[in-house]
Specification:
mainly alpha
Length: 294
């Protein structure tokens, strides 16, 4: 907040404060969502992005530009767009989970498979519509579907903070149940955990957090994977009362530290989201190769 502080101090502090608040919210939402998702699936390679939520976000943006155009979007306002995007993402997840869990029970493999298929479908539809856009509209769309930490308006940050605070309270109250759920379905049910109800609630909270993060800054596919897998060896414990604050702090340090290095050390030679996606993608490939070798 105070590095090389000069000039219009009020404007600079406001701008940096909004960026910092955005990074803290994204660090919490993406990191905790990935941690919970990996706890439920008992797999440290999977992330909530495999459910197709980020592909749906890109499809929503494409449909808005295609059918409403940029002038129509201005009528909704920043808060209206944010609420619509977050609600659509959460409604999709709710419908998917209720439909799947109601038909086949808590079959996580089926949920993941349907999520992958939906993600592929959404990307295909988005690609088709993007080819039909005018060049100017396509340029506007490109600026909306790439993650950036500088475009969130104060009212959007305030709405996100309220939603994140309510979600944080709910998750923290479940921290001991999460320890039991991480043992697996059979052991958890044997220890008295209502598996179906708890897993459904956790997946819905994960969807809400991913929706908030994606609607706030855009898609960050591998950020949650990166910070979650950095947290496990750093914390050295399986207990969620330590993992939950640990993943949040790791995410904040990653985002804020990365932004400081890019701005002050490299003179903005790159974009933070691109660097994070590159490192996270490399980590994901390394996990896949390591697992295949085993």
């Amino acid at each position: 907040m105070t590095i090389n502080l000069s000039g219009n101090i009020s404007y600079i502090l406001t701008h940096r404060g909004l960026m910092l608040a955005t990074m803290v919210l994204v660090a919490f939402s993406s990191g905790v969502a990935t941690l919970l998702f990996q706890t439920v699936t008992n797999n440290r390679i999977l992330t909530p992005s495999v459910m197709g939520l980020e592909a749906l976000f890109i499809l929503i943006q494409t449909l808005l530009i295609f059918f409403i155009d940029a002038n129509g979007l201005a009528l909704l306002g920043a808060s209206g767009q944010f609420i619509c995007e977050a609600l659509l993402l959460v409604l999709f997840s709710t419908f998917l989970y209720r439909w799947l869990l109601g038909r086949v029970g808590v079959n996580l493999h089926m949920v993941l498979l349907v999520g992958l298929v939906c993600g592929t479908l959404f990307r295909s539809i988005s690609g088709l519509l993007q080819r039909l856009l005018e060049p100017g509209e396509f340029a506007i769309l490109q600026s909306r579907i790439f993650a950036t930490f500088t475009r969130a308006a104060p009212e959007i940050i305030a709405l996100s903070a309220l939603a994140v605070l309510a979600t944080a309270v709910a998750i923290w109250r479940m921290r001991y149940s999460l320890d039991v759920i991480a043992l697996g379905r059979e052991l958890a049910m044997g220890l008295g955990v209502s598996w179906r109800r708890r897993v459904t609630l956790i997946l819905l909270l994960v969807s809400l957090l991913v929706a908030l993060s994606t609607a706030l800054v855009g898609p960050l596919t591998f950020f949650g994977l990166l910070v979650a897998n950095l947290t496990y060896p750093l914390i050295g414990s399986h207990r969620h009362q330590y993992l939950l604050p640990g993943v949040v702090l790791t995410g904040i340090i990653t985002l804020v530290g990365g932004q400081v290095i890019l701005e002050r050390g490299l003179n903005m030679a790159g974009t933070l989201s691109v660097v994070i996606e590159f490192v996270g993608g490399a980590l994901f490939l390394w996990f896949l190769i390591k697992k295949a070798a085993v």
